[in-house]
Amino acid sequence: MLILLIEDDIDLGAAIVRELKAEGFAVEWERTGSDGLFRAIEWDHDLVILDRLLPGMDGTEVLRSLREKKQVPVLMLTALNRLTDRVKGLDLGADDYLGKPFELAELLARIRALLRRSSAWSDEALTHGDLEFHFGAKRVFKGGKEVVLRASEFATVELLLSRKGRPVSKQVLEERLHEDFGKFQSNSLEVHIHRIRSKLGHDFIQTKRGLGYLVPRLGGDT
Question: Which domains does the chain have, with CATH numbers?
Answer without folding.
Answer: 2-118 (3.40.50.2300), 126-214 (1.10.10.10)
